[in-house]
């Protein structure tokens, strides 16, 4: 029993010392820092998850901001993770060092006692189990220092161990201070207390095992969480890489859009130039239209002069008519019968007048319908002008033409109003003439009485009057023929009206088709406006970038062009210098060859002489030994000279080879420059093809605009013709109404006459 209690005391002391050592390693400030870092990491992970969920739900700007935030958070999370990992490694190393130091110190001091005690009280199997349990306790403690939950569990274990030591092991610790024999006898006396303590120690050991299991479970959970976080970090890094790829694609698309915008801006500039030319043509057409209006005004003035002449003729005819009435008073009875016929005719004419009035009302309705159609056409013109806002110059010119046409219409309306006023004035004059005629008819009654006295005298004049009557009858027949011709002209005008109505219906159909085309063009314009509004947001941002890029490219191109031009000039100069140097060296080489040939010839002559001398000297070898020695020296000097010349020739050959290599390098550089020039020419050709395509598109648009202008001109001409015909028709009906009014007035005058 005593041994068990001592074993428990030893284990508790080892636990106490290990917990104290671990508590010394972990500072409270570091614990607080670790807690705050843990909270920040959890918040960042939540924020990253939210951003990943919302990354493709908003606009482009919001997505770009979220991606930038996500990248920043991932970088910060990675840095914090690295710092925690470094702290974990440092603390683990410190703990291991401390444990090794403590094991080293304790092993030297307690090796004898502990080993002797353990060997005396325990078997080898128990010793191995004990060592394994101690090692297993050290490793989870090393890992538990950096985990918050493990720290709390260690603190609880520490508290339980301290409480257990303080409360339950005061007596054994007091006994341990004494001698072992005294403690043994005291422990034997209190067996019952020892059994209780043993049970409590076993319970505490079980609790410690449970805490150790919890610590192991927490370490496993922490490792799993670390692995999950690593997987999350890898996933985020993959997402960041994919987003970078998307950013590169977007940059490429942005560049393509910038190029398209540049092309479109060029096309717009070309369209502006074409619009200016079209404005000039429209101004010329306006001048022609003003000239035609002047001619129309002149024709109106001529027609007014003719009307005045006809009115004068009508006044003269009225005078003749009054004279004829004086002559026809004799035959009142016959005239009475004729008056009946005339009354019948007047009734018939009144019916015709009513029919004509109905026709006039119908014509006025048609005229009003025509005005309504004209207004509809004006509205359609306004709609076309609104649809053609892209072509600003044409819209302005059409607006000007519209204003001019409205002014002209106002002028025509004013002229019609003036004509109506003149008509009212003429009606007033006719009423005055009728009053005068009544007065004259009274005078005629007085004169009739006088005329009866002069009837005998007038019998002689009857023959002349009959002749006049016959002439008047002829005039009446002529008037009837003119009337028939007039009816025929009316029928023709009615036919023309029907044709005009058919044409107007056709024009309405064409206008409906044009409206459909205009509606389609409006829809296309709306789509283009939407695209323009989408592109305008990027256009203003890209303009600056394009300007900067163009300036940079222009500068780079100028610098490269200057460098290339300088290189070409330097290469040309080097080529010229090499040519000159080559010619000089060739000339010098030829001269040297000539000199060497001459020297060789001389030397050959000398050798021949030497050979001759050697032949002659072969007989005199003994006596001429000194001469042979001198000859050998001369030949040695000669050979040295030949070797020097050969070395110089070899040097010249090497120099020529170097220059040839330099020329080859220069040629290669020149070929590279030519290839670059060819590539630039190919790029220029591509740009020219794009420009040609854009010009073809502009031509097609111009053709479309010209077709629209031609159709508008045709419609304008048809409108003018319809207005002219309506004016002629109105003038004709006005003249006819005036004529019938006059006839009615004359007939009423005759009826009122006795």
UniProtKB/TrEMBL annotation:
Residues 107-121 have a biased composition (Low complexity). GO terms for molecular function: actin binding; structural constituent of cytoskeleton. Residues 17-95 form the NAB domain. InterPro entries: NAB. Pfam families: KIP1. Keywords: Coiled coil. Residues 233-274, 307-380, 476-606, 670-725 form a coiled coil. The keyword Coiled coil applies. GO terms for cellular component: cytoskeleton. This is NAB domain-containing protein. It comes from Anisodus acutangulus.
